[in-house]
Amino acid sequence: MTNVTLKNVSKAYGDVLISKNVDLEIQEGEFVVFVGPSGCGKSTLLRCIAGLEDITSGDLYIGNERMNDIEPSKRGVGMVFQSYALYPHLNLFDNMSFGLKLAKADKKEIDQRVEHAADILQLTHLLDRQPKALSGGQRQRVAIGRTLVSQPNVFLLDEPLSNLDAALRVQMRSQITKLQRKLGCTMIYVTHDQVEAMTMADKIVVLDDGYVSQVGKPLELYHYPQNRFVAGFIGSPKMNFMSVFIDEVESHQVKVQLSNGMSFWIPVDGTTVNRGDRMSLGVRPEHLLTACDGDATIEGEVMIVEKLGNETQVYLNLEGADADVNYRQPDTLAVEVGDKLEIGIPAHRCHLFHSNGDACRRLHQEAGVDLPQ
Q: Start and end of every ABC transporter domain (predicted)?
């Protein structure tokens, strides 16, 4: 297995720039997930690594070799696409061995590689079946196995689970993660689903309009987003945002005023904040508290109640919020649409964002996560 390095990589189609000045280092054996909304350039970047798209500018290295002008078959990469693309008239063994047969590999070697891949993916008992006799999850495993038998240095997966139902996605998520750990391979995985990114990745690359918005471990991005885009994209349900007025500023804390006039200090780097500024306060639904436990409180009208059994999600209409504020409480909550509900805001869980979207560095140490420098 090997590392992948992108140096100032851009990709354009005519005058339209898709991937923009991407600098990225993917270490050997790392599971890296590219995540972002549709159209942000994540699949384009993956195809540039695979050699299916030419790089407009910049350099791509796999190992120590520059790959810009190397054809796809010689890059040592294997790609799993969103579509299974299995041959319907061939059984699983023939589907998985098709590429090796085209390369005129020795029959004994073909048998060994297919049997090894089938054993890893728990497909051995299905090798004589045709794709039509398989479930969606089994077909996806065959597509992965077809790539696995080629023994690539780098695995590339482009939204491989998007065609599966919710239960199968959860199952395949864990199977792909186990496979990567077992093989110890370098794997780059593209998805628009941030839950997949959070649960599978060693490192997440968040893309926004072709740019790399932030790179880090899942909990680093969750607790210490560098900008409002990452804060709103990572986490489900998404972070709540509300407009605040800056009352006072110190180097290690900032005093914010809510729309109801209540003020409180939050532990963030105040060196870039000015008194009198209008900024956005961010707080996650699961971090909001009952009114008596918060450092500040705010009241709103209940618009929607989602009773899920293990938790209750309440959407409140609050003055100064960008949208209905989501309050998430474990277990059940006796509240109905039209009620007034007061919630508490914990200062140490708050995020603060400038009007340009940049975050003030949080100074509260979250358990198990290093403070950003």
A: 4-234
